[in-house]
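Whiteboard transcription, Tuesday session. T.W. wrote the C-alpha coordinates on the left side:
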Protein backbone atom coordinates (compact mmCIF):
# COMPACT_ATOMS: atom_id res chain seq x y z
CA UNK A 1 0.00 0.00 0.00
CA UNK A 2 1.30 3.44 -0.91
CA UNK A 3 1.91 6.05 1.79
CA UNK A 4 3.12 9.63 1.54
CA UNK A 5 5.30 11.84 3.71
CA UNK A 6 4.18 15.43 3.22
CA UNK A 7 6.42 18.23 4.49
CA UNK A 8 5.29 21.64 5.69
CA UNK A 9 7.21 23.30 2.84
CA UNK A 10 5.19 21.33 0.26
CA UNK A 11 7.69 18.55 -0.51
CA UNK A 12 6.18 15.07 -0.91
CA UNK A 13 7.99 11.74 -0.55
CA UNK A 14 6.30 8.55 -1.72
CA UNK A 15 6.87 5.12 -0.21
CA UNK A 16 5.23 1.93 1.04
CA UNK A 17 3.26 1.67 4.24
CA UNK A 18 4.12 -0.59 7.17
CA UNK A 19 3.08 -0.69 10.79
CA UNK A 20 -0.17 0.92 11.90
CA UNK A 21 -2.62 2.04 9.17
CA UNK A 22 -3.14 5.57 10.45
CA UNK A 23 -2.19 9.14 9.58
CA UNK A 24 -0.02 11.26 11.86
CA UNK A 25 1.37 14.80 12.09
CA UNK A 26 4.58 15.59 13.96
CA UNK A 27 7.93 17.33 13.84
CA UNK A 28 10.12 15.62 11.25
CA UNK A 29 13.70 14.90 12.42
CA UNK A 30 16.54 12.59 11.39
CA UNK A 31 18.89 10.25 13.24
CA UNK A 32 22.35 9.41 11.85
CA UNK A 33 22.95 6.21 13.86
CA UNK A 34 23.86 3.07 11.94
CA UNK A 35 22.14 0.88 14.54
CA UNK A 36 20.14 1.29 17.73
CA UNK A 37 16.78 1.83 16.06
CA UNK A 38 14.89 0.06 18.87
CA UNK A 39 16.38 2.29 21.55
CA UNK A 40 15.80 5.39 19.43
CA UNK A 41 12.15 4.68 18.67
CA UNK A 42 11.44 4.16 22.38
CA UNK A 43 13.57 7.09 23.62
CA UNK A 44 11.08 9.54 25.16
CA UNK A 45 13.15 12.46 23.86
CA UNK A 46 11.53 11.63 20.46
CA UNK A 47 8.02 11.95 21.85
CA UNK A 48 5.71 13.38 19.19
CA UNK A 49 8.31 13.37 16.41
CA UNK A 50 8.46 11.60 13.05
CA UNK A 51 11.82 9.86 13.10
CA UNK A 52 13.82 9.45 9.88
CA UNK A 53 16.73 6.98 9.87
CA UNK A 54 19.55 8.03 7.56
CA UNK A 55 21.15 4.56 7.53
CA UNK A 56 19.68 2.82 4.45
CA UNK A 57 18.70 -0.55 6.01
CA UNK A 58 16.75 -0.57 9.28
CA UNK A 59 15.42 -3.56 11.20
CA UNK A 60 17.97 -6.18 10.20
CA UNK A 61 18.35 -7.54 13.74
CA UNK A 62 14.69 -7.29 14.69
CA UNK A 63 13.18 -6.31 18.04
CA UNK A 64 14.18 -7.89 21.37
CA UNK A 65 13.03 -7.69 24.99
CA UNK A 66 16.17 -6.04 26.38
CA UNK A 67 16.74 -2.81 24.44
CA UNK A 68 13.63 -0.77 25.14
CA UNK A 69 14.14 2.71 26.59
CA UNK A 70 10.44 2.93 27.48
CA UNK A 71 7.54 0.51 27.36
CA UNK A 72 6.09 1.74 24.06
CA UNK A 73 7.15 3.79 21.03
CA UNK A 74 7.95 7.43 21.75
CA UNK A 75 8.24 8.51 18.13
CA UNK A 76 4.93 9.19 16.38
CA UNK A 77 6.08 7.51 13.17
CA UNK A 78 9.24 6.22 11.49
CA UNK A 79 10.71 6.74 8.04
CA UNK A 80 13.18 4.33 6.38
CA UNK A 81 14.82 3.79 3.01
CA UNK A 82 14.53 0.02 3.36
CA UNK A 83 13.08 -2.07 6.15
CA UNK A 84 14.51 -5.57 6.60
CA UNK A 85 12.14 -8.34 5.53
CA UNK A 86 13.98 -11.16 7.30
CA UNK A 87 15.67 -10.00 10.52
CA UNK A 88 18.33 -12.27 11.94
CA UNK A 89 19.63 -12.12 15.50
CA UNK A 90 19.59 -14.66 18.34
CA UNK A 91 17.86 -12.14 20.63
CA UNK A 92 15.12 -11.14 18.15
CA UNK A 93 11.51 -11.85 19.11
CA UNK A 94 9.87 -10.26 16.06
CA UNK A 95 10.58 -8.01 13.11
CA UNK A 96 10.47 -4.23 13.31
CA UNK A 97 7.45 -4.16 10.98
CA UNK A 98 5.58 -6.71 13.12
CA UNK A 99 6.34 -4.77 16.29
CA UNK A 100 5.30 -1.45 14.70
CA UNK A 101 1.93 -2.96 13.74
CA UNK A 102 1.47 -4.42 17.22
CA UNK A 103 2.33 -1.12 18.91
CA UNK A 104 0.14 1.05 16.62
CA UNK A 105 3.20 2.82 15.17
CA UNK A 106 2.87 3.98 11.54
CA UNK A 107 5.83 3.81 9.20
CA UNK A 108 6.89 4.41 5.61
CA UNK A 109 9.69 2.68 3.70
CA UNK A 110 11.14 3.07 0.23
CA UNK A 111 11.82 6.76 0.85
CA UNK A 112 14.91 8.51 -0.50
CA UNK A 113 16.13 9.29 3.01
CA UNK A 114 19.36 10.81 1.72
CA UNK A 115 17.43 13.48 -0.21
CA UNK A 116 15.06 13.95 2.72
CA UNK A 117 17.92 14.46 5.18
CA UNK A 118 19.63 16.95 2.87
CA UNK A 119 16.36 18.88 2.70
CA UNK A 120 16.05 18.97 6.49
CA UNK A 121 19.65 20.13 6.80
CA UNK A 122 18.94 22.93 4.33
CA UNK A 123 15.55 24.09 5.60
CA UNK A 124 15.64 22.83 9.19
CA UNK A 125 13.28 20.45 10.98
CA UNK A 126 9.64 21.11 10.19
CA UNK A 127 6.15 19.75 10.58
CA UNK A 128 5.21 16.79 8.41
CA UNK A 129 2.28 14.45 7.86
CA UNK A 130 2.30 10.72 7.15
CA UNK A 131 -0.82 9.99 5.09
CA UNK A 132 -2.27 7.49 2.62
CA UNK A 133 -3.56 10.21 0.30
CA UNK A 134 -2.29 13.71 -0.44
CA UNK A 135 -5.09 16.30 -0.48
CA UNK A 136 -5.39 20.07 -0.28
CA UNK A 137 -6.74 19.58 3.24
CA UNK A 138 -3.55 17.79 4.34
CA UNK A 139 -1.36 20.61 3.01
CA UNK A 140 -3.56 23.30 4.56
CA UNK A 141 -3.64 21.52 7.90
CA UNK A 142 0.15 21.33 8.02
CA UNK A 143 0.32 25.12 7.69
CA UNK A 144 -2.04 25.77 10.59
CA UNK A 145 -1.66 22.90 13.04
CA UNK A 146 0.08 23.75 16.31
CA UNK A 147 2.14 20.92 17.80
CA UNK A 148 1.99 20.21 21.51
CA UNK A 149 4.37 22.01 23.86
CA UNK A 150 3.45 19.74 26.78
CA UNK A 151 5.77 16.87 25.86
CA UNK A 152 7.38 16.53 29.30
CA UNK A 153 4.00 16.54 31.03
CA UNK A 154 2.84 13.82 28.62
CA UNK A 155 5.78 11.46 29.25
CA UNK A 156 6.91 11.96 32.86
CA UNK A 157 6.04 9.39 35.51
CA UNK A 158 2.71 10.06 37.17
CA UNK A 159 3.90 8.83 40.58
CA UNK A 160 7.13 8.35 42.50
CA UNK A 161 8.82 4.92 42.32
CA UNK A 162 12.09 3.33 43.41
CA UNK A 163 14.75 1.37 41.51
CA UNK A 164 16.28 -0.10 44.67
CA UNK A 165 19.79 -1.12 45.67
CA UNK A 166 21.68 -0.80 48.94
CA UNK A 167 24.11 1.87 47.76
CA UNK A 168 24.20 5.65 47.44
CA UNK A 169 20.74 7.22 47.16
CA UNK A 170 19.95 9.51 44.23
CA UNK A 171 16.73 11.40 43.52
CA UNK A 172 15.97 11.42 39.79
CA UNK A 173 13.62 14.00 38.28
CA UNK A 174 11.96 12.34 35.29
CA UNK A 175 11.57 14.67 32.30
CA UNK A 176 11.44 11.70 29.88
CA UNK A 177 13.77 9.19 31.48
CA UNK A 178 15.62 6.54 29.46
CA UNK A 179 15.73 3.10 31.06
CA UNK A 180 19.44 2.88 30.24
CA UNK A 181 20.18 5.65 32.76
CA UNK A 182 18.60 3.52 35.48
CA UNK A 183 20.58 0.50 34.27
CA UNK A 184 23.85 2.46 34.32
CA UNK A 185 23.20 3.57 37.90
CA UNK A 186 22.07 0.11 39.01
CA UNK A 187 25.36 -1.37 37.78
CA UNK A 188 27.07 1.04 40.15
CA UNK A 189 24.90 0.00 43.08
CA UNK A 190 22.97 3.28 43.18
CA UNK A 191 19.54 3.39 44.82
CA UNK A 192 17.32 5.63 42.66
CA UNK A 193 14.01 7.22 43.59
CA UNK A 194 12.28 8.67 40.54
CA UNK A 195 10.03 11.75 40.84
CA UNK A 196 7.60 13.40 38.40
CA UNK A 197 8.81 16.45 36.47
CA UNK A 198 6.65 18.85 38.50
CA UNK A 199 8.06 17.77 41.88
CA UNK A 200 8.99 20.57 44.28
CA UNK A 201 12.39 20.80 45.95
CA UNK A 202 11.13 20.16 49.49
CA UNK A 203 9.52 16.86 48.50
CA UNK A 204 12.91 15.65 47.27
CA UNK A 205 14.80 17.02 50.27
CA UNK A 206 12.38 15.25 52.62
CA UNK A 207 13.60 11.89 51.26
CA UNK A 208 17.18 12.77 52.29
CA UNK A 209 18.98 11.72 49.07
CA UNK A 210 22.75 11.92 48.60
CA UNK A 211 22.42 13.60 45.21
CA UNK A 212 20.04 14.64 42.42
CA UNK A 213 20.04 13.68 38.75
CA UNK A 214 18.04 15.56 36.10
CA UNK A 215 17.03 13.24 33.26
CA UNK A 216 16.76 13.69 29.52
CA UNK A 217 13.42 14.50 27.93
CA UNK A 218 11.61 15.94 24.90
CA UNK A 219 10.73 19.41 23.71
CA UNK A 220 11.59 23.01 24.48
CA UNK A 221 13.16 23.54 27.92
CA UNK A 222 11.26 26.82 28.26
CA UNK A 223 8.04 24.78 28.46
CA UNK A 224 9.30 23.23 31.73
CA UNK A 225 9.74 26.54 33.51
CA UNK A 226 8.50 25.23 36.89
CA UNK A 227 11.51 22.93 37.17
CA UNK A 228 13.97 25.84 37.08
CA UNK A 229 13.17 27.06 40.61
CA UNK A 230 13.30 23.49 41.92
CA UNK A 231 16.75 22.95 40.43
CA UNK A 232 18.00 26.26 41.79
CA UNK A 233 17.07 25.20 45.33
CA UNK A 234 18.40 21.65 45.06
CA UNK A 235 21.82 22.57 43.62
CA UNK A 236 22.60 24.62 46.71
CA UNK A 237 22.05 21.68 49.06
CA UNK A 238 22.96 18.50 47.14
CA UNK A 239 25.39 17.36 44.44
CA UNK A 240 23.58 17.51 41.12
CA UNK A 241 24.02 16.16 37.59
CA UNK A 242 21.95 16.94 34.49
CA UNK A 243 21.64 15.04 31.21
CA UNK A 244 20.28 16.41 27.89
CA UNK A 245 17.08 18.33 28.74
CA UNK A 246 18.26 18.22 32.36
CA UNK A 247 21.43 19.98 31.18
CA UNK A 248 19.45 22.74 29.50
CA UNK A 249 17.21 23.25 32.56
CA UNK A 250 20.26 23.31 34.86
CA UNK A 251 21.82 26.02 32.68
CA UNK A 252 18.58 28.01 32.71
CA UNK A 253 18.39 27.73 36.50
CA UNK A 254 21.72 29.55 36.62
CA UNK A 255 20.92 32.39 34.28
CA UNK A 256 21.73 30.93 30.86
CA UNK A 257 19.38 30.81 27.88
CA UNK A 258 18.60 28.17 25.26
CA UNK A 259 17.79 28.29 21.55
CA UNK A 260 16.49 25.89 18.92
CA UNK A 261 19.02 24.25 16.61
CA UNK A 262 18.32 24.22 12.88
CA UNK A 263 18.17 20.41 12.67
CA UNK A 264 19.42 19.22 16.05
CA UNK A 265 21.88 16.54 17.10
CA UNK A 266 20.44 13.05 16.82
CA UNK A 267 22.87 10.17 16.46
CA UNK A 268 25.75 8.30 18.07
CA UNK A 269 28.81 9.80 16.41
CA UNK A 270 29.08 13.31 17.87
CA UNK A 271 32.63 14.19 18.88
CA UNK A 272 32.81 16.21 22.10
CA UNK A 273 35.92 17.86 23.58
CA UNK A 274 36.56 18.22 27.31
CA UNK A 275 37.91 21.77 27.45
CA UNK A 276 39.96 21.14 30.60
CA UNK A 277 41.70 17.89 29.65
CA UNK A 278 41.49 17.95 25.87
CA UNK A 279 39.95 14.49 25.93
CA UNK A 280 37.63 13.76 22.99
CA UNK A 281 34.66 11.43 23.43
CA UNK A 282 32.30 10.14 20.77
CA UNK A 283 28.84 10.54 22.20
CA UNK A 284 25.19 9.63 21.81
CA UNK A 285 22.92 12.67 21.41
CA UNK A 286 19.25 13.44 20.87
CA UNK A 287 18.23 17.07 21.22
CA UNK A 288 16.78 19.93 19.21
CA UNK A 289 17.73 22.75 21.62
CA UNK A 290 21.08 23.93 22.98
CA UNK A 291 22.48 26.31 25.59
CA UNK A 292 23.49 29.72 24.25
CA UNK A 293 27.21 30.18 25.06
CA UNK A 294 26.91 33.99 25.05
CA UNK A 295 24.30 33.80 27.82
CA UNK A 296 26.75 31.99 30.13
CA UNK A 297 28.97 35.07 30.38
CA UNK A 298 28.45 36.71 33.77
CA UNK A 299 26.86 33.65 35.39
CA UNK A 300 28.38 31.21 37.90
CA UNK A 301 28.57 28.60 35.14
CA UNK A 302 31.70 27.42 33.37
CA UNK A 303 31.64 25.63 30.01
CA UNK A 304 33.33 22.22 30.33
CA UNK A 305 32.58 20.51 27.00
CA UNK A 306 31.88 21.55 23.42
CA UNK A 307 30.84 19.78 20.23
CA UNK A 308 33.79 19.72 17.85
CA UNK A 309 31.87 20.30 14.61
CA UNK A 310 29.57 23.21 15.46
CA UNK A 311 30.99 24.23 18.88
CA UNK A 312 27.66 23.99 20.69
CA UNK A 313 27.81 23.85 24.48
CA UNK A 314 27.99 20.20 25.56
CA UNK A 315 28.68 20.59 29.27
CA UNK A 316 28.69 23.13 32.08
CA UNK A 317 29.43 23.17 35.79
CA UNK A 318 28.85 25.51 38.68
CA UNK A 319 31.94 27.22 40.04
CA UNK A 320 30.65 27.39 43.63
CA UNK A 321 28.64 24.18 44.03
CA UNK A 322 29.05 20.48 43.29
CA UNK A 323 26.84 20.50 40.22
CA UNK A 324 27.39 19.86 36.51
CA UNK A 325 25.53 18.78 33.39
CA UNK A 326 26.16 17.42 29.91
CA UNK A 327 24.14 17.67 26.72
CA UNK A 328 24.99 14.15 25.55
CA UNK A 329 23.97 10.75 26.96
CA UNK A 330 26.65 9.10 29.14
CA UNK A 331 24.48 5.95 29.35
CA UNK A 332 25.33 5.38 25.67
CA UNK A 333 22.25 3.38 24.71
CA UNK A 334 22.64 3.17 21.86
CA UNK A 335 26.08 4.50 21.13
CA UNK A 336 29.73 4.51 22.21
CA UNK A 337 30.58 4.11 25.89
CA UNK A 338 33.27 6.82 25.89
CA UNK A 339 31.49 9.12 28.35
CA UNK A 340 30.04 6.61 30.82
CA UNK A 341 32.78 7.61 33.28
CA UNK A 342 30.74 10.74 34.05
CA UNK A 343 28.43 8.67 36.26
CA UNK A 344 31.51 7.65 38.26
CA UNK A 345 32.59 11.29 38.53
CA UNK A 346 29.13 12.16 39.85
CA UNK A 347 29.33 9.41 42.48
CA UNK A 348 32.83 10.61 43.44
CA UNK A 349 31.45 14.12 43.80
CA UNK A 350 28.74 12.77 46.13
CA UNK A 351 31.33 10.89 48.21
CA UNK A 352 33.51 14.00 48.52
CA UNK A 353 30.56 16.13 49.61
CA UNK A 354 29.52 13.58 52.23
CA UNK A 355 33.06 13.43 53.58
CA UNK A 356 33.27 17.21 53.69
CA UNK A 357 29.94 17.42 55.55
CA UNK A 358 30.95 14.78 58.09
CA UNK A 359 34.26 16.52 58.79
CA UNK A 360 32.75 19.99 59.03
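and on the right, the sequence the group agreed on:
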Amino acid sequence: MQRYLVLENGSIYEGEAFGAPKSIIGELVFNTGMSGYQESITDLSYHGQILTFTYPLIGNYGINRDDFESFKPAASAIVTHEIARRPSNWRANMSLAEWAEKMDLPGITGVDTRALTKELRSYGVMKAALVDEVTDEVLANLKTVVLSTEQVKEVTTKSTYVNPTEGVSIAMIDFGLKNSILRSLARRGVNVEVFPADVDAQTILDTNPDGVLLSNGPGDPESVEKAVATIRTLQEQLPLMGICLGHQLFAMANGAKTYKLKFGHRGFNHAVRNLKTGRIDFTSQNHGYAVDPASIVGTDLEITHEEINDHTVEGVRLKKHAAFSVQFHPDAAPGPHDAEYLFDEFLEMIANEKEHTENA
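Someone added at the bottom: The chain has a mean pLDDT of 95.
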